Amino acid sequence: MSSYIERLQNRTDGRETRRRVLTLSDDDAAEVLGTLSSDTSRRVYRSLFDAPATPSELAARHDLSIQNVHYHLSNLDEAGLVTTVDTVYSEKGQEMTVYGPASDPLVLVGEEDRASSIDRSLRDVVTGLGGLAAASLLVQWGAERLARGGTGAAAEPAGLGPVTGEPVGTLSWLVFGVLEPGLVFFVACLVLAAVAVRFRA
User: Fold this and answer.
1) Where is the chain membrane-spanning (predicted)?
2) Could you tell me the CA-to-CA distances from 110 to 22, 54, 142 in Å, in that order?
């Protein structure tokens, strides 16, 4: 079954993590803030987090000219905010560059001494989420095997029996129709982690 946990795992595995931590004393921070001071640049940059896009797609999204989009993309690229993520071809065979965010998350820190610790924290969070998603996938797989009872038949939600009309697969219905074990495990671990962090604070 294509579950939320599987989609989360695929997203975690399929995307390279590119975090960026800047301090106010960095020259790069001044360039980033200067670039994002433009409302149009911010709109273009923000929309790339929704979905990577070509300049023509961005022009259509924001009702801008291609020249204007290229201008803002150039500024965003010079500030290290966007990068090329793919190349596609139009119906006429013209090569088009697909742009996306160069870093996610982008964090601005006031104190330089805190930058390294925040960077480590972000790395730990991303690593932890990836491991938790993998563990949740294993929980889901184990629950499915338990529901099948080792017969090799796919676990399905309850239905009506072909003759008696009685519900069949009650355990499967309870496990997969009401609760998704992997997702429950994932959410429970997040809650426990949040409680632990709160008590440590």
Assistant:
1) 173-197
2) 9, 34, 46
